[in-house]
Design goal:
With 134 residues, the protein is of the alpha+beta class. It has a single domain, classed as Alpha-Beta Plaits, CATH 3.30.70.120. Helices cover 22% and strands 34% of the residues.
């Protein structure tokens, strides 16, 4: 349905925000962090939901209080010493943040904390430029 002739086209609302949630921003990145919760086939060896929430509440949210997303993921990992990959349950943490040394340091602190807490060898991080608007 079209507006009557001579009616101005509707103007989309302007995006307004603040420093943490800008209307539009440049110089932002998206970091995706993959945290292994343990073997899919051995629930007794997994990090449970309560342990994950505790880590998220104590180590991640204080560093990135403006927001983040968490997804449940299934994956495979093969250690150098293994003859075949193992099936893993993972949490995928997605954080959009400013491309600064300070925020990069926070990402690395989260990864280091996970490795220390769990004894894991790694916490995969993928960071890419992002166009952000709220």
């Amino acid at each position: 349905m079209h507006p009557p002739a001579g009616t101005p086209a509707p103007v989309p609302p302007a995006l307004h925000g603040d420093q943490a949630h800008p209307g539009q921003a440049q110089g932002w990145v998206e970091s995706r962090l993959y945290f292994g919760l343990g073997p899919a086939d051995h629930p007794e060896k997994r990090i449970d939901d309560a342990q994950w929430r505790d880590f998220l509440n104590k180590e991640v949210t204080p560093r990135f209080p403006a927001g983040l997303s968490v997804l449940d993921v299934y994956g495979r990992w093969q250690d150098k010493k293994q003859s075949s990959p193992e099936r893993l349950r993972l949490k995928l943490l997605i954080i959009d943040h400013s491309d600064t040394q300070e925020d990069s340091g926070r990402i690395e602190a989260v990864r280091a904390s996970w490795k220390q807490c769990t004894g894991d060898q790694s916490a995969l991080a993928v960071t890419e430029p992002a166009d952000v608007s709220f």
